[in-house]
DNA-binding MarR family transcriptional regulator (Micromonospora pisi), 145 residues
Amino acid sequence: MGRDETSEDKFFRELGGAYAELRQAFARHVGMSPLRVQLLVRLRRDGEISHSDLRLALGIDGASVTRLVKEFEAEGLVGRRLDPADNRYTLAALTPAGERMADDLGRSHQSYQERLLDGVSTQEQEIVLRVLRRVRANVTERENR
């Protein structure tokens, strides 16, 4: 630990660093930007979704969402249409080619995770999961006070 670094500082620095490194490393592994990976994963998970909901889910501005979706559309991976319930909104969904790419990405992610956990026992994984659940519960408790 650094001179003034507490155990809490070290814990959250390592946690944040590991998360950031994992997202970047997988994106590099598949040759895509992290945002492109996130967008494909979100569309695979949620199906058709509005640009506005994508903006909130990805934590980026609307112009960035539009740019990414248009890039995917130009590649034949995403289709867009006006929301029939409210034509102020644009909906995006994976095309069949996009679904195949997202499925490939999902399989690649699964095998990547398995390789990263090589040498980490199931018991060790469960300990980390319990700690993370407790931290998240503490966050929720603090926010609800």
Remarks:
- The beta strands are 49-50, 78-82, 90-94.
- Residues 21 and 27 are 10 Å apart (CA to CA).
- Residues 8-108 form a domain with the Arc Repressor Mutant, subunit A fold (CATH 1.10.10.10).
